[in-house]
Specification:
heterodimer, A: 329 residues, alpha+beta, six-stranded mixed sheet, globular, B: 544 residues, mainly alpha, 22 helices, nucleotide-binding (chain A), iron (chain A)
């Protein structure tokens, strides 16, 4: 179990990571989500032992201070794989096995390549692989010696969108099958949801919220976190009260985060307004509607509704796509 | 803390070597100027600097270096274009051949030029013997290779699309060159020019052999003052002037240094064949070939002639000591000494160079660390600019008493040569190491590889070729080194350049013929080494 208490890192006196505390139980996958510059990569590098840090970091109670990277047993996988270009796929994957003189390394390499779906790629050189294949090889290489902890630094960001989705699903399956404890850094919330079961959100060098992925998702700690998690808007004050009442929820807070699909054009509903813009996407029409008492909000309509700017529409509210934001933020 | 310790640990050996064998001798030389009979006396230095002859020497050094730089640039830039941006049969051979002059022994080149433009030479009618023009031509002979190399590498990696975009907007080729290509090349040109100026201003062998009595540069003047006139104070004063000027110049150069990233994947279009518009490049290449080829041809032809007839007698005489006991040992012995010395100098400079390159190229974590690494980088570049004569003389006056009495040590010459070659080794390796993504090392470490294993996995595979190239480069430079060696070589263990210099200083047709033959042999050795290096195709060799 990885445990961090008040870990901080600074570059030339400028803090990049401030008082990070977290626990990661064996077998769990934690996604660290944050915009670029939020300190999430610094956190990962500090755990890998690549940045000098203050505070206490331990594994199963053993202090990690002074343990160099190569003795931590934490494998690190980079955004662009960082395969060794002069070694074949098999030798890349078997690198750590050879370091430890593991017997029967060839069989283990075959097994790993099968796990990541690259059977028969043993003798290829990294330069002949596609981006997705390279990331799979990098993953196999990291998993080869069953690391205590796998650190993934934006493992899918270098890939194009379609591939990213497929590989995220694969990554989740592979991590579960291997039973790996992993910490993944990403700026893409969908990637985080596809792969992780716990989530830590970072901003300005601090962990602002952490917990089970569903908990964080349903109860973002503040407006900025909500927006980063993919909520379309945060309404506050009277608008928030109006929306909560319309959704049939208790009016307990002054701010509410709204997903785009929380409001949908319906035949009957508690809200009404005028469409101010409409954009057709493959699955639905995305609207911006000026609702009485709420102001401008996002909404969706089915493709066959033909909502157009200037139309009067009635909106239904899906309470499960709203998140009340606790007071004090 | 551990980072700082490992930085210090890695840098300790090169620093100690540089301290004992560079800083100590050079500062010993300098203090010679400021202290007379044990008392501090800076007035003497000022007095030396007021001498009219010293003014003449400094003025000649500056303008001949400027002229040498200008000629090198005028010839080198168009040639670089033809050799690096146009495709024609034999261009690779041409490129390889034009790198060789840079490492040819200076004494050899001096002899070759004299053979060409001397009174009896094929171009003797021009009356250039002993003229300043001959010296400038000699300087250009060496340094045109530096310009072609540095500017050519930059030109080759230039993205052609901005120029194509300008042309598509209606710009003529000349306008495109002036507004798009030249600004993109400016860093490379300026950087090459400053390095060439540095080399020209500290040139020793060429000026000594071609300048005769009429022309003297700061470098040769230091030599004359110490060896012939024994005016150590004046020599020290000149050394100080040179050291200051060169340190300033090096500081400027390091800011301008622009070496293309050797690991960057480049997708430049296949270069076109030369067309009529490429006449400047063709003319310049032709002139460069003449400039380089004629003296060498004259040298080879001269070495094969005895009394106006063809003969190998000059070569056969190389196992002797020349007429009228010109030498203490046969030339063949000197060749063996030269090769042995070069081997020693090579492993020394390579060992130090790798350490320095590793220290300098590692990514810094803090500003202080970055500054420390930058400072080290600059420090190890100093031997590039500090006169080899100052270094050699400094060795003599500081390493002659216990605890470091090395006067009679056979290691003295290789050590001095290793220091001269060190900056070239470092400059070849640093861009290569710096081009390695640090995350490769981190990936290896996170898989359980210790520091040495990381080096073997990540650094070594990328580095072995540049390392081999640097070794060849250091070997060639050591073979031809003359400035420091002229002070340090023992009379019974001379190297080839020393023997050649002795031979041309002694009267007698036989001695002169032997000097020519010995020059051809030495030039052939360095050329072969350099051509092998060129086969390795390491882009950073000779790029400063």
């Amino acid at each position: 179990m990885l445990s961090l208490r008040d870990v901080s890192v600074s570059y030339d006196g400028a803090p990049a990571l401030l008082d990070a505390s977290l626990d990661l139980a064996d077998g769990q996958v934690l996604a660290v989500l944050g915009p670029s510059g939020s300190g999430k990569s610094t956190l990962l590098r500090a755990i890998a032992g690549l940045e000098p840090s203050s505070g206490r970091m331990s594994w199963d109670g053993d202090d990690l201070a002074g343990v160099p990277t190569h003795k931590r047993g934490f494998a690190l996988m980079f955004q662009d794989g960082q395969l060794f270009g002069h070694l074949t796929v098999a030798r890349n994957v078997g690198y750590a096995l050879r370091l430890r003189r593991t017997p029967d390394a060839a069989a283990r390499v075959r097994e790993l390549l099968a796990l990541v779906g690259l059977e028969g790629y043993e003798d290829r050189l990294p330069a002949t692989l596609s981006g997705g294949e390279r990331q799979r090889v990098a993953l196999a290489r990291s998993l080869a010696v069953r690391p205590r902890l796998l650190l993934l630094d934006e493992p899918l960001s270098a890939l194009d969108a379609g591939l990213r989705g497929r590989l995220a699903t694969d990554l989740a399956r592979i991590l579960r099958e291997a039973g790996t404890t992993a910490l993944m850094v990403t700026h893409d919330h969908e990637e985080a949801f596809a792969v992780a079961d716990r989530l830590a959100v970072m901003r300005d060098g601090r962990i602002v919220q952490q917990g089970g992925i569903g908990e964080v998702w349903q109860a973002p700690a503040d407006a900025a976190t909500a927006l980063f998690l993919g909520y379309a808007r945060v309404l506050d004050g009277e608008a928030a009260h109006t929306l909560l009442r319309a959704a049939g929820l208790p009016v307990g807070t002054d701010a509410v985060a709204v997903r785009r699909s929380a409001l949908a054009v319906a035949d009957a509903g508690p809200l009404a307004g005028t469409v101010s813009s409409a954009r057709v996407t493959p699955g639905q029409i995305r609207l911006v509607v000026d609702v009485d008492g709420l102001g401008e909000v996002d909404a969706v309509a089915r493709l066959d509704t033909h909502a157009a700017p200037g139309d009067e529409v009635v909106l239904g509210v899906d309470a499960s796509r709203l998140a009340a934001i606790p007071a004090g933020h | 803390m551990r980072r700082a310790l490992s930085l210090v640990g890695l840098a300790a050996v090169p620093l100690a070597v540089l301290g004992v064998f560079f800083v100590l001798p050079v500062s010993g030389m300098i203090s010679e100027g400021f202290w007379t009979d044990g008392s501090f006396d800076p007035g003497a230095v000022l007095e030396v600097l007021a001498r009219p002859r010293v003014h003449r020497v400094i003025w000649f050094t500056v303008w001949s270096a400027c002229a040498g730089t200008a000629v090198s640039l005028l010839l080198g830039v168009p040639t670089a274009h033809l050799l690096h941006r146009r495709r024609f049969p034999g261009r690779r051979v041409l490129r390889a051949l034009l790198v060789v002059p840079f490492v040819l022994p200076t004494v050899v080149v001096g002899v070759a030029f004299r053979e060409l433009i001397g009174e009896a030479g094929p171009l003797g009618f021009l009356g250039l013997d002993g003229s300043a023009a001959a010296i400038v031509a000699g300087l250009a002979f060496f340094n045109v290779a530096v310009v072609i190399r540095a500017v050519g590498a930059a030109w080759e990696s230039l993205d052609p699309r901005p120029a194509e975009a300008a042309a598509a907007l209606g710009a003529s080729p000349a306008y495109v060159f002036r507004t798009v290509t030249l600004p993109a090349l400016r860093p490379a040109i300026v950087s090459a020019a400053s390095v060439v100026f540095l080399f020209c201003a500290t040139a020793f062998g060429v000026v000594l052999t071609l300048g005769g009595l009429r022309y003297s540069s700061v470098e040769t003047e230091i030599y004359l003052l110490t060896t012939n006139l024994l005016d150590l104070q004046a020599a020290a004063a000149l050394s100080i002037v040179q050291l200051l000027a060169i340190t300033a110049l090096l500081a400027i150069t390091s800011r301008l240094r622009a070496v293309p990233d050797p690991t960057l994947a480049r997708s430049t279009a296949r270069p076109p064949r030369p067309s009529r518009g490429d006449w400047p490049g063709m003319v310049a290449t032709g002139l460069v070939l003449l400039l380089v080829g004629l003296p060498i041809a004259a040298l080879v032809v001269g070495s094969l002639q005895v009394d106006d007839g063809w003969s190998l007698a000059n070569y056969r005489a190389l196992d002797g000591t020349g007429s009228r006991q010109a030498l203490l040992v046969p030339v063949t012995d000197a060749l063996v000494t030269s090769l042995r010395t070069a081997v020693d100098a090579t492993w020394m400079s390579l060992g130090l160079g790798v350490l320095v390159a590793v220290v300098v190229s590692r990514r810094s974590r803090s500003r202080a660390e970055r500054r420390a690494r930058g400072l080290l980088d600059g420090l190890f570049m100093l031997p590039l600019g500090v006169s080899a004569v100052t270094l050699g003389f400094g060795f003599l006056i500081t390493l002659d008493r216990p605890p470091l009495d090395l006067r009679d040590s056979l290691l003295l010459v290789p050590i001095a040569q290793a220091l001269v070659a060190l900056p070239l080794v470092v400059r070849t390796l640093v861009p290569v190491l710096g081009g390695i993504d640090d995350r490769q090392r981190q990936a290896a470490a996170s898989l359980g590889a210790g520091p040495l294993r990381v080096f073997a996995t990540v650094d070594l595979p990328t580095m072995w070729k540049p390392l081999l190239a640097a070794a060849g480069f250091a070997f060639a430079v050591s073979l031809g080194e003359f400035g420091a060696t002229s002070f340090l070589a023992r009379d019974d263990h001379p190297t080839m350049p020393i023997v050649i210099f002795h031979l041309i200083g002694h009267p007698g047709a036989m001695n002169y013929g032997m000097a020519l033959a010995a020059s051809v042999v030495l030039a052939a050795c360095t050329a072969v080494v350099m051509l092998v290096v060129e086969r390795l195709r390491v882009p950073t060799v000779g790029a400063f």
